[in-house]
Design goal:
By secondary structure, this protein is an alpha+beta fold. It has one domain. The chain contains 4 helices and 6 strands, in the order αββββαββαα. A 6-stranded antiparallel beta sheet has the order 1-2-3-4-6-5, covered by helices on one side. The chain is globular, with a radius of gyration of 20 Å.
Length: about 150
Amino acid sequence: MTKKKHVSPEGLDASLLPKQRKPIPHAFVLDAISALSPYTRPMFGCLAIYVKDKIVLILRDKPTNTADNGIWLATTQEHHPSLRREFPNMRSIQVLGKPVTGWQVLPVDAPDFESAALRACELILARDTRIGKVPKARRASAKKAAKRRARS
C-alpha cells in the first residue's frame, strides 16, 4: 500500500487549483426573495436568478460598461411604462447595443438603487407578471447534435 503525500496548495501550480468564485453582486436581492427558493446560473459574465421556470433578474457588477451595473429586470417592452412609474431611474441596457430591450436595468449608481431593488423583489414575491420570462429552449451544441444524428 502506498502512502499519499500531502501537498500544500502553495506547492501546486496555480492552474491546478479550483477557480475562486467571485462574490455575488447585490446579494441582498437573493435574501429578499429567498421564500421563492430562487436558483442562479452564470449568464453574460453576471448572475441570473430564476424562480421556477422563469428568469426574473440578473445581478451585474463588472469593471467594464459600468453604466449597466446593477439589477437587470427580465420584462417586455409592453410593461416598460408601468414599471417606469414605479422605478423612475429604470432604463434599457446599453451594453446590448439596442436602443430599447426587454431587459431593463435598475442602475447601481441611482440614488434609490437599494429601495428600487427591494421593491422589485416585492413585485417578484407578489408574482407580478411584469417581471420574469420563461427563457426560450436552449439549442443543443453542434457536438451533441452530431452525436444524436450519428445514433439515428
